[in-house]
Design a protein that fits this description.
This is DUF4244 domain-containing protein. InterPro entries: DUF4244. The chain is mainly α. Helices cover 86% and strands 0% of the residues. The protein is elongated, with a radius of gyration of 26 Å. The N and C termini lie far apart (67 Å). The mean pLDDT is 83.
Length: 69
């Protein structure tokens, strides 16, 4: 192993060992992020399924098909 690679390895290992008890916090942060994304997806799904948005999207698709045909 080269000297610079060995130094990098030792420095990384030292930093990881300093993290100690806080190493599991990233899992909790990911869980909160996933829950927020799922909530946003449910809200967006509710908006898209509303009658006003559905009719607007239908109009856009019909207009596009009319132009293409």
């Amino acid at each position: 192993m080269s000297t610079s690679l060995r130094r990098l390895y030792l420095r990384l290992r030292t930093r990881l060992s300093r993290m100690g008890t806080d190493a599991g916090m990233t899992t909790a942060e990911y869980a909160v992020g996933i829950m927020a994304a799922c909530t946003f997806a449910l809200v967006l799904l509710g908006v898209v399924r509303s009658d006003a948005v559905r009719s607007a999207l239908t109009g856009i698709v019909q207009n596009a098909l009319g132009l293409a045909g």
